[in-house]
């Protein structure tokens, strides 16, 4: 019965008119650069201090960055097979649609809309403001602009302006977007190489840095899960090229190469950057700091050269922001073509890009900037983004079993060991992160669960029946608000865990009741 329903949903989705298609204009280098741009961002420039505070041992921090890189590479190898089998815009939304049907694919699109790209863009914009503020404090300490950026609210204004600016820019067309993305990411790579070469040279020539002491410290086992979650957020862009699959030339060749090359390059960069951080800054001083790159640059290069790197780090984060604004709307575009999102999101402008989807995402990014801090966004986002890649890689195993004779342009190596390793390690990260940070975990789960009745509601609206629409939407908004209130209560009162769990319980019950009712209504309409 379940299989028949899944086939029915896939059939309904496949019947949607694909009236406007994206043009294939991106080559291997552009696709690889997009992967690098999406990965190298606020995570490596802002997370090491938080990981150090959670884990305690620099050696364990380096081990987590290495393990995270291997997990990301395993995921990239698995996605490479799926992306060449289904080379369409939307990434895992497309894969889950073909493997599991409508509901899981809708939920991954739901999370992509609310978390996957809007939140990283907001985080990159906020951290860019932090680095720019640090630069102005040193160079122009008494100017209006430097005093303006000392205030967190004003930094949020700057971050919001950056989101709007890149939203406008990416509406000009994919070719122009690709060129500027290449320029931003190329500049980022050059600065990182200069920082790495100069940092390693100066650190090893400095006799005052005892390397064995730089990596000493006791491990805090209870913080390993959250530490690895922060690491995986920094690696979260390893699947970026798959979202642009419909715009990449020769996807059967360029997609796997770009996913793997971009991920490998990023792993090397991350390990070198963290090595330099610990050579330059004592671990105790680094712990909990939001700007480890600036701290290291100040210790290694001195105040004058550090000014240049502050501007460079702020500028480099714009590459990540730009990549998120460019990639995310392709998911909503794909959902709209399948009838699972507003019709306007699937319409292309005269420049051939989904402009309205871009501005929907920018609006959500502005909400994140308004309501949260950098650390809040990182923790909540890291948990949410760990869920659906696990389901997608599990789907690869099912896909191989269901269609063993299907011709595939690329096959994931070490099958099924590689996908099983990815699933187990990623699942362990999700579990340990939830146990250590139930506040963020409950809120993230409540957002995912809210998508279940929304899916059946949307399918019912497609069928032309909007009975009780207002009541259902109101209930879901209240449930998410209840979870949000519990999130903030627990933030300021860690002993109030029962309130967070109660809010999640309310959400689970409401989702179960109304999803069942909507599902029955939709099935009756389908018959």
Tags for this entry?
527 residues, mainly alpha, 25 helices, 78% helix, 0% strand
Task: Give the structure's gist in a few sentences.
This protein is an all-alpha fold and 527 residues long. It contains 25 helices and no strands.
Protein topology:
Elements lengths: L1 H13 L13 H12 L2 H5 L1 H8 L2 H28 L6 H8 L2 H15 L1 H22 L4 H7 L1 H18 L4 H32 L5 H4 L9 H11 L5 H4 L7 H30 L2 H4 L5 H36 L1 H9 L17 H17 L2 H12 L1 H16 L14 H20 L1 H25 L6 H24 L4 H30 L1
Helix pairs in contact: 2-11, 2-15, 2-17, 4-13, 5-13, 5-15, 5-21, 5-22, 6-7, 6-21, 7-18, 7-23, 8-9, 8-10, 8-17, 8-19, 8-20, 10-17, 10-19, 11-15, 11-17, 13-20, 13-22, 15-17, 18-19, 20-23, 21-22, 22-23, 23-24, 23-25, 24-25
Structure, explained:
With 527 residues, the protein is an all-alpha fold. α5 crosses α13. The two termini are 14 Å apart. It has helices at residues 2-14, 28-39, 42-46, 48-55, 58-85, 92-99, 102-116, 118-139, 144-150, 152-169, 174-205, 211-214, 224-234, 240-243, 251-280, 283-286, 292-327, 329-337, 355-371, 374-385, 387-402, 417-436, 438-462, 469-492, 497-526. It is globular and about 65 Å long. Residues 1-19 have low confidence and may be disordered. It is built from 25 helices and no strands.
